């Protein structure tokens, strides 16, 4: 009986972890060193999600306004046009809502020379 409970617990944890959405790619990539301002910000996930919040800011805290609006429909890929960015370190902070109702947060950095 103890082995059966252990197996069921392990399977529950395994399948629960497999169900969470994960970031597959971000453009500009994490720790990218860019010679020119990027034209867009793009996020790709392994499952369809809703983008709840995406913030782009200079490392010193100045928020960069771009066309982000929370998504109404779940999708795997998101793209937003960016204004011309001045040379600086930038951080992208994102929050998504997975189909299982979990909020997942992440961040990435890049530099424009």
UniProtKB/TrEMBL annotation:
Pfam families from the xrefs? CopC
Give residue ranges for domain CopC.
20-112
Write out the coiled-coil annotation as residue ranges: none
Picking any one GO molecular function of the record gives: copper ion binding
Q: In Gene Ontology terms, what is a biological process of this protein? A: response to copper ion
The cross-references to SUPFAM superfamilies, in alphabetical order and at most eight, read: E set domains (SSF81296)
Residues annotated as signal peptide: 1-21
Alphabetized, the UniProt keywords read: Copper, Signal
Which is one Gene Ontology cellular component term of this protein?
periplasmic space
Q: What is this protein called?
A: Copper resistance protein CopC
Specify the species.
Saccharobesus litoralis
């Amino acid at each position: 009986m103890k082995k059966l409970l252990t197996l069921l617990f392990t399977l529950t944890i395994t399948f629960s972890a497999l169900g969470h959405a994960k970031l597959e790619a971000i453009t500009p990539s994490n720790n990218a060193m860019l010679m020119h301002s990027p034209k867009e910000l793009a996020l790709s996930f392994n499952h369809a999600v809703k983008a709840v919040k995406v913030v782009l800011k200079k490392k010193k805290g100045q928020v960069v306004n771009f066309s982000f609006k929370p998504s109404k429909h779940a999708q795997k890929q998101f793209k937003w046009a960016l204004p011309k960015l001045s040379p600086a370190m930038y951080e992208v902070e994102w929050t998504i809502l997975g189909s299982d109702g979990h909020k997942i947060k992440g961040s990435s950095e890049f530099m424009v020379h």
